Amino acid sequence: MPPHVQNFLTPLLLFIVGPGLVYLISGVLWAHLSPLWRERTARGLHVYASFLLPVLLFTLWDTTTGPATHDPELAAQKTAMSLMTLLLWPVVALPFALLFTWLLSLRAEDRARL
């Protein structure tokens, strides 16, 4: 594939086609969920976002506003640490979000029984 075509297609797929497909597929799946599973899914996504967003936003803020360094090695090290945080934290946060969501669901079910 010629480079100019690839330079056009890659952002198109990453920023328009991919998110559009995810939106459409998730809308179809959401419509077929029962109200109980909608509530559980919404609670799980809320907990996951609560674990995920503060760390990701702080990492992005630190990357853009941190002290400027004239040492290329230190700048590269800081960039690498930020990228590793952005790549790994969503994976690390997922089990904690699932556990916390499960505990919240148990608490809500116990409260509903009373």
Automatic annotation (TrEMBL):
Domain of life: Bacteria
Keywords, in A-Z order: Membrane, Transmembrane, Transmembrane helix
Parts of the chain that traverse the membrane: 12-33, 45-61, 81-104
Protein name: Uncharacterized protein
Source species: Deinococcus ficus
